[in-house]
Amino acid sequence: MNSQISNQSEQTEIFDDYQNPQNASVLIVDDTIYNIQLLSLMLIRQGYKVQEATSGLEALDKVNQQLPDIILLDIRMPDINGYEVCTRLKANPATKDVPIIFISSIEEPSEKVEAFSVGGVDYISKPFQLIEVLARIETHLRLCSLQKRLQKQNEQLQLSAEVLSRSLKQERELSQMKTDFISVVSHEFRTPLTTIQSASELLEYYEWSKEEQVEQLHQIQSEVKHMTALMEDVLFLSRSNTNKVKLNLTKFNLLSFCSQLLRQMQRTFASDYALNSSLYISSTNTSIESFHLQDDLPNLLVKMDDKLLRQILTNLLTNAIKYSPHNKKVEFQITVEQEQVKFVVSDHGIGIPKEDLENLFSAFHRGKNVGILPGTGLGLSIVKNCIDIHNGSISVESQLDIGTKFIVILPISDGVFPV
Question: Between helices 130-205 and 2-19, what is the axis angle to 10°?
Fold first, then answer.
């Protein structure tokens, strides 16, 4: 019942548009002044706004100045005839939808056919009846209103269909991603669990020396740490994808933060890799080489999310070291500007194939050339999520067997605070 009332209300609204035609304008085009005066008087009394033109060219000029709601058009005129006027109006996108009613004393059927073929909506023969003219005008104004409403509804339906189609596509993609995610996570957990189970069974059923027992326990501990790290990565991605990870800005010393992080990396990977660092501060034109090996560093306070920054830099540096041959240099550069910081992590490793660049930041995606090197394919996905949360950007340059460079730009809230 409610839908019926709604439909009736919409129909009433449409038909009411021109039952009170005070807002409708009519252009009368006729080279006979008497006809113009007669039609104008009748239409003004009915509440229409009237424009007048005594030639085809004048009619075209007035239509361009002010678009009427409907046109009454004579056929025979001294300059260009009504057919030509109608043809030009229908060829113009701005005027093609204005309904045109021909009014003529010509009774030839061929003339009437011509009037409809050039785009006229109706044909009234002279001498005309005023009541008939008024009825035809009101009918075509209502029809025009209905056509506009129908066109608008069709456009809305098409837009809704497109939105629905995109939503269904996204839902299918999310469903597939969820399936892939569960499959990969299950696989990643199965391997360390198998190792833990094997080591525990060996400890239970076989006699081992103290050293051998410790070795098996260390293996179990190593796999547990791996699973814990993997679980933390998965949970972080899950929270970030559901917008549960929020930006938490704090003020801290950027140079001290990065220096400690690089030193930790150097201790973790011992002497297998050489870490080079450099710093440039644009506001003071200051450059510092190997800043992570120096104790006396300038204080440079920034307001950023230090936890997200640690995730970003740790993952990028770990990847740079992991995919580089031993004794190769990994370079870390910082450029500090007033409103942003640029971090550049470069290696001289295996590089990234071009076909892998498109999906580089997708969860569990690993390059085709990584071989047996360990990894889950979550690191760069976490990096991208952290950067997006921080409203930053990341780009990559890579060549096979030459190396890879990641460029991260993060905004600094409230600027830099040199101390």
Answer: 140
Query: What are the tens digits of pLDDT across the range 111-142?
Result: 889 999 999 999 988 888 888 889 999 999 98
Specify whether the CB–CB gap between 72 and 89 falls below 8 A: no
Q: Which amino acid is it at 211?
A: E
Radius of gyration over every alpha carbon of the chain, rounded to an integer in angstroms: 39
Would you say 341 and 302 are in contact if contact means Cβ atoms under 8 Å apart? Answer: yes
pLDDT in tens, 138-195: 999 988 888 888 888 888 888 888 888 888 887 886 677 666 666 656 656 676 787 7
Q: Between helices 82-91 and 56-65, what is the axis angle to 10°?
A: 30
Q: DSSP string spanning 274-339?
A: EEEEEEEETTTTEEEESGGG-S----EEEEE-HHHHHHHHHHHHHHHHHTS-TT-EEEEEEEE-SS
- What pLDDT digit, counting tens, does each position of 252-297 carry? 999 999 999 998 888 777 566 788 899 998 888 888 998 988 888 8
First and final C-alpha spacing in the chain: 73
The full length of the chain comes to: 419
Question: What is the predicted pLDDT for the residue at 161?
Answer: 87
Q: Are 49 and 26 in contact (CB under 8 A)?
A: yes
Select the highest-mean-pLDDT range: 60-74, 240-254, 377-391.
Answer: 60-74
Residue type, 386: C
C-alpha span between 187 and 198 (Å, rounded): 17
Bridge partners, 280 (sequence order): 287, 335
H or E element that contains 343: strand 340-346
Q: Which amino acid is at 75?
A: I
Query: Token digits for 136?
Result: 């035809």
Helix (H) or strand (E) holding 95: none
Q: If you write DSSP's letter for every residue of 69-89 in order, what string do you get?
A: SEEEEES--SSS-HHHHHHHH
Neighbours of 355 (CB within 10 A): 9
Residues 6+ apart with CB under 8 A from 375: 322, 366
The CB density around residue 5, as the number of other CB atoms within 10 Å, is: 9
d(CA 69, CA 100): 9
